[in-house]
Amino acid sequence: MTPLLASVASWPGVDEHVVLPFAEAAGRAPQPPVIPLEGDALLFAFLCAGLVGGFLIGYLYRALFVEAGGRT
Questions:
Q1: Range in 2-11, 45-54, 58-67 the model is least confident about
Q2: Which of 3, 9, 12, 49 could form a disulfide linkage to 16, CB 3.0–4.6 angstroms apart?
Q3: Is the pLDDT of residue 25 over 80?
Q4: In a domain, 1, yes or no
Q5: How confident is the model at residue 57 (pLDDT cuts 50, 70, 90)?
Q6: Domain membership flag for residue 51
Q7: Going by C-beta distance under 8 Å and a sequence separation of 6 or more, which residues neighbour residue 30?
Q8: Does 47 fall in a domain?
Q9: Can you tell me the distance from the alpha carbon of 36 to that of 53, in angstroms, rounded to the nearest whole number?
Q10: How far apart (Å, rounded) are the C-alpha atoms in residues 30 and 11?
Q11: Does residue 44 form part of some domain?
């Protein structure tokens, strides 16, 4: 037996249900992605970007928020 969610052939994403109708209504053809990442590679890219951004904000927190607050 397969779970109910696994039996669905494909789950349409935001691109198919939101972006595509607006683009077609505006008379624009769908464009290929700038960086064509397949599958979970896009999630991994967002994970890496979040880790780098979080590290930088954490490392520079005092310089950005605490020490800058005393200056006028």
A1: 2-11
A2: 12
A3: yes
A4: no
A5: very high
A6: yes
A7: 20, 23
A8: yes
A9: 22
A10: 19
A11: yes
